[in-house]
């Protein structure tokens, strides 16, 4: 499992690293700049997350088709994924336009509204390559070929660093654009990533897109694919907006609270990419095993992925608990921001193990084609437990920022327990392959 997951983990970390680099490089401009990038990423993620989750229907559809040796099913899965990506991109771009109005209505600090809105409008230019890259990435993972994705992500990170260096503070003859420069850097990196992936993986991706199969436009199979992906998008939305709502709450507490929260969340998001990589690997190998009708191997691979993710996050938790001040000051030395970050990083350490567990169990369930029940479990965990508890602790007790994060921890713990239970139940049952081009979808 470690061998299979390593390149997928590299890709997940590499994609997230671009956001981490943005936060580190704008950190020299102060807490308000960090907060602006944080809000901008929150804004983009929460309008894009449903579309991102929708495209994860590719995992069971393509992986199980690969396992069954169904090349037509693979091609149609990729083509339908591209159609859904283009449709979702239009919605995302429209939603990112009215930034000042949205952020003002959410009562965010006045000193960050304008730069955040401008940052978000730059990010909308990357919506198409971002989602198209996701389609190709998921398809290649399902096929077991990840090297082209790794190369594209590494190249995009180099572009992101150089563009940030030039555009944030005005170096190499470029204008000093501050937070907006970080947005432009992300746009350049995302387009680089998508185009290079197409170039590197064309021998594999080309046959899935040429010739275009007119059956890929058929509404009934597309509807079935949406039926698989929509619960994943819903699950991701409720989980992402739980963190997003906490970001809004931090904004109500002030710029220093928002910036400190962003630092802690930025680091937690980076380490989270490792179990997310194991989640992708689990979805692929479990899906291929089910496509072959080999449930015993699916169970073995599911267990291996969960163990690997939990072990890694336990080590990550130890680091977060041991050196929070060292980690916080890598971003900024602004005293108020550092104080908030130092109070939150150890809590991030506590929820690391739960976060990794719920991520990898989601991947296992996705590989089996089970997406509806996990979405319900996430709603219960985050919105029945995490958010109400966090709001109560944050606004009704002296815990403030820490109270909000303890609520998130409770939500993640509940999600981890509930989804582990669901994995056990699912793998004990009778699992059949997901097929789109049939009169009725397989269970």
Describe this structure in words.
- The protein has 443 residues and is mostly helical.
- The protein has one domain.
- Helix content is 83%, strand content 0%.
- It contains 16 helices and no strands.
- It has helices at 2-26, 31-55, 58-68, 71-95, 99-105, 110-123, 127-143, 147-167, 179-209, 219-253, 255-292, 295-322, 324-328, 335-368, 372-396, 401-428.
- Helix 2 (31-55) packs across helix 7, helix 2 (31-55) runs parallel beside helix 11 (255-292) and helix 10 (219-253) runs parallel beside helix 15 (372-396).
- The longest helix is centred in the middle third of the chain and has 38 residues, at 255-292.
- The two termini are 27 Å apart.
- The relative contact order is 0.14.
- Residues 439-443 have low confidence and may be disordered.
Short descriptors:
single chain; mainly alpha; 0% strand; 443 residues
Please outline the helices and strands:
Blueprint: H1 2-26, H2 31-55, H3 58-68, H4 71-95, H5 99-105, H6 110-123, H7 127-143, H8 147-167, H9 179-209, H10 219-253, H11 255-292, H12 295-322, H13 324-328, H14 335-368, H15 372-396, H16 401-428
């Amino acid at each position: 499992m470690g061998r299979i997951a390593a390149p997928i983990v590299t890709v997940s970390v590499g994609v997230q690293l671009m956001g981490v680099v943005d936060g580190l490089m704008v950190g020299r401009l102060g807490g308000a700049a960090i907060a602006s990038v944080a809000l901008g990423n929150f804004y983009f993620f929460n309008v894009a997350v449903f579309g991102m989750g929708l495209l994860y229907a590719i995992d069971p559809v393509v992986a199980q088709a690969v396992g069954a040796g169904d090349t037509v099913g693979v091609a149609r899965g990729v083509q339908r994924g591209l159609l859904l990506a283009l449709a979702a991109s239009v919605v995302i771009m429209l939603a990112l336009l009215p930034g000042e109005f949205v952020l003002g209505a959410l009562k965010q600090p006045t000193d960050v509204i304008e730069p955040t809105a401008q940052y978000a409008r730059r990010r909308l230019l990357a919506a198409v390559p971002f989602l198209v890259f996701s389609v190709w990435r998921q398809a290649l993972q399902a096929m077991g070929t990840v090297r082209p994705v790794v190369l594209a992500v590494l190249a995009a990170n180099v572009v992101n660093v150089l563009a940030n260096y030039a555009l944030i503070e005005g170096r190499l003859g470029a204008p000093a654009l501050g937070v907006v420069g970080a947005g432009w850097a992300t746009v350049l990196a995302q387009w680089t990533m998508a185009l290079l992936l197409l170039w590197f993986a064309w021998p594999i991706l080309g046959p899935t897109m040429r010739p275009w199969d007119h059956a890929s436009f058929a509404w009934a199979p597309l509807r079935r694919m949406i039926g698989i992906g929509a619960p994943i998008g819903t699950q991701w939305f409720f989980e992402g907006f739980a963190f997003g709502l906490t970001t809004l709450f931090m904004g109500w507490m002030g710029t220093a609270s928002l910036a400190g929260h962003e630092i802690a969340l930025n680091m937690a998001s980076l380490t989270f990419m490792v179990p997310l990589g194991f989640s992708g690997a689990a979805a692929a190998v479990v899906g291929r095993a089910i496509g072959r009708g080999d449930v015993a191997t699916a169970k073995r691979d599911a267990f291996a992925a969960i163990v690997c993710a939990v072990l890694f996050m336990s080590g990550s938790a130890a680091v977060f608990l041991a050196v929070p001040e060292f980690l916080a000051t890598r971003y900024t030395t602004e005293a108020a921001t550092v104080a908030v970050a130092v109070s939150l990083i150890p809590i991030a350490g506590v929820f690391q193990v739960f976060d990794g567990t719920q991520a990898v169990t989601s991947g296992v369930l996705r590989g089996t084609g089970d997406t509806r029940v996990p979405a319900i479990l996430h709603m219960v965990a985050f919105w029945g437990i995490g958010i109400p508890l966090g709001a109560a602790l944050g606004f009704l007790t002296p815990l403030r920022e820490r109270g909000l994060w303890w609520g998130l921890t409770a939500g993640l713990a509940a999600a981890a327990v509930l989804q582990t239970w669901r994995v056990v139940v699912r793998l004990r049952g009778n699992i059949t392959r997901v097929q789109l081009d049939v009169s009725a979808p397989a269970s």
